[in-house]
Design a protein that fits this description.
Rossmann fold, 7-stranded mixed β-sheet, 4-stranded antiparallel β-sheet, 18 helices, 16 strands, globular
Length: about 600
């Protein structure tokens, strides 16, 4: 990744726009689901809301839990149109019939519905002959947690996950290559085939899924794939990060990055661009996953492990996707009626160089409760001044406090991009020290890297040197001087910065398609080879990093800024003071002008009376 700066401030919105007049209207030949009262599951409501028409949706619907039903009931509801009050269905005492929830999340064509009916018939037959257990008593096996916090900065990591890390990193590289399919005269197509063949040779089946990108999800996209290894009984969901491939409207992925305003969802606030892109691909991801899940026997299904991973923007999307998938599979019953990921540890998240996504304690608590914090790891390059800028580009607690101190506009900016307490990431931090990453980069091919940079420097500027030798008088023209400034000085400076900063974001600086130019470079990531730190060691370094932020000079400065913001919040708003002064000045000026007008009118009367 050569463009490292990224804006990623958590924000999230939960629902799509509905037609306020027709959302609940009965329509023929269109899929609808029944509504029932949670306390009376077999009784149809007397309310006029009889059906929920899912054909009016513009983007996928997301299941949300009402604050009133977070207990044993576990009822689900959906936002209803603004004309209906913008509240949850539970506010009207209604909920979606559980058997129809999967239909909402995964709308099917007529053919798919018929296929589902036939599969249900086969399942009924198998149950009757004892070939498959009744899913009403189905229980997921309790897998080992991804991370076990042993206290005092000591961690234990699931050895199965540790062994999967190199493969996950290779898969992230494949996801980037898929995003560049059709570019560079089709060279990436051959590279994609090579990477897929390598993974398939290790027992992985791969199913790509479609999605949307760009602000407003205006552009079709292939953001990633689902892979399954039957022998290992492991499934992965991989989402690529943003690239600079442009269309007629610009770079859609970067539009998502810059769509950074925080939006509300039932559990707090989240990065709007990231959330909207995630929900757009959710039904297709579920469809790809079900292709592998549906044929599983009960034993395989009860023991499956699913890892959701991504790099950069892909990591942000993955951190939103994990709890949504958990909620989805809890609702559709494919993992049994009592599925709880916090105890079964089926879904895991491995987020590489992730931007901050969520804002507010309630959002973080929801993710931790649904997914289990012990099932998520975020791995970032850090360590002093030389650190990956992406994970810290969104305003955290201290930056949000600093923004709020700006006169007049500060409070609005802080609330818009930082929320109440700043934006945050989820999961345990695995800190990869920047000096270790740069050592890996230089250790790989320091000499060849320098040689390539030198060769590129002189080769790309050969025309300037030739022109100067043949026509030296051209050196005094503005066009040539501008070219010399750009090519001989500014471009080398940019190249040097990219060479230094790209590895901090695990980006490649190598040339050539297969070398991974412009792609994610897994060889730089701690955990890819036996020579780099183990995941447990990276987690211990993350613990030390978080501790150092709260202690010493860094902690003193952060605390001072946050205390100043708290004190400012208790003082009258400067904008309000300025508005009061402005009003007072206007009132005084109006009185003065009125007095002058009255005096002038009286003077005119006196003159007229004398005549």
């Amino acid at each position: 990744m050569k463009n490292i700066f990224i804006t990623t401030i958590p924000l999230a919105i939960i629902l799509s726009a509905f037609s306020s007049e027709n959302c609940f209207a009965e329509r023929q030949n269109k899929p609808t689901v029944d509504l029932v009262k949670p306390s009376e599951p077999e009784t149809k409501p007397t309310d006029d809301l009889k059906e929920f028409d899912i054909t009016t949706q513009k983007t996928p619907l997301d299941p949300v839990r009402s604050a009133e039903t977070l207990g044993d009931n576990e009822a689900y509801g959906f936002k209803i149109p603004p004309s209906k009050g913008g509240s949850l269905l539970q506010d009207k005492g209604l909920q979606i019939v559980p058997k129809d929830l999967d239909k909402l999340l995964y709308p099917r064509s007529k053919e798919e519905e018929e296929d589902l009916s036939s599969r249900k018939a086969r399942l009924k037959s198998e149950l009757a002959t004892g070939q498959q257990e009744d899913l009403s008593s189905f229980q997921m096996k309790q897998n080992q947690a991804m991370v076990q916090d042993l206290g005092n900065g000591t961690f234990e990591v699931d050895p199965d996950f540790e062994r999967q890390v190199p493969t996950l990193l290779d898969m992230n590289k494949l996801a980037y290559a898929i995003g560049k399919r059709g570019t560079v005269d089709g060279e990436y197509d051959a590279y994609i085939t090579k990477l897929k063949t390598s993974l398939q040779g290790k027992g992985w089946e791969i199913e790509e899924f479609e999605g949307k990108t760009g602000k407003g999800n205006k552009t079709d996209d292939t953001p990633g794939f689902v892979a399954y290894n039957k022998e290992q009984n492991v499934m992965t969901v991989i989402i690529r990060g943003s690239h600079t491939r442009e269309d007629a409207d610009g770079s859609p992925d970067w539009e998502v990055n810059f769509d950074a305003k925080l939006i509300d969802f039932p559990f707090g606030k989240v990065h709007g661009g990231f959330y909207n892109r995630t929900t757009a691909m959710l039904p297709n991801i579920q469809k790809a996953m079900n292709r592998f899940i549906d044929p599983m026997d009960n034993k395989a299904r009860s023991e499956v492990k699913i890892v959701v991973s991504g790099h950069s923007q892909g990591a942000a999307l993955a951190s939103i996707l994990v709890p949504l998938l958990v909620e989805t599979y809890k609702a559709n019953g494919k993992f049994g009626p009592n599925f709880d990921n916090a105890t079964s540890n089926v879904f895991r998240g491995y987020f590489i160089s992730t931007p901050r996504v969520y804002s507010g304690d309630s959002a973080i608590n929801w993710v931790d409760r649904v997914s289990g914090r012990h099932n998520m790891i975020r791995q970032n390059v850090t360590g002093g001044i030389l650190a990956d800028p992406v994970p810290i580009s969104s305003p955290g607690r201290t930056m949000t406090a600093l923004l709020s101190l700006i006169p007049f506009a500060g409070k609005g900016l802080a609330e818009k991009y930082g929320g109440d307490k700043g934006t945050r990431s989820v999961g345990y931090l695995a800190a990869d020290w920047s000096n270790d990453v740069l050592t890996r980069q230089l250790g790989n091919d320091a000499l060849s890297l320098a040689a390539r940079r030198a060769k590129g420097y002189f080769w790309n500027r050969w025309d300037i040197l030739v022109d100067a030798a043949k026509k030296p008088w051209h050196l005094i023209t503005f066009k040539t001087q501008k070219k010399i400034l750009t090519q001989l000085f500014l471009q080398p400076l940019k190249d040097s910065l990219v060479t230094l900063v790209a590895p901090l974001h695990y980006g490649s600086t190598n040339s050539g398609i297969e070398a991974g130019e412009g792609l994610f470079n897994p060889e730089l990531v701690g955990g890819y080879t036996g020579r780099s730190p183990t995941m447990a060691e990276l987690l211990a370094q993350g613990f030390q990093k978080k501790k150092s932020e709260r202690e010493g000079l860094s902690g003193f400065i952060r605390g001072g800024i946050e205390e100043a913001a708290r004190k400012k919040a208790s003082l009258p708003e400067l904008s309000a003071i300025a508005s009061g002064i402005k009003t007072k000045v206007k009132s005084t000026a109006k009185k003065i002008v009125g007095g002058l007008k009255g005096a002038f009118a009286g003077f005119k009367k006196k003159l007229f009376w004398r005549k």
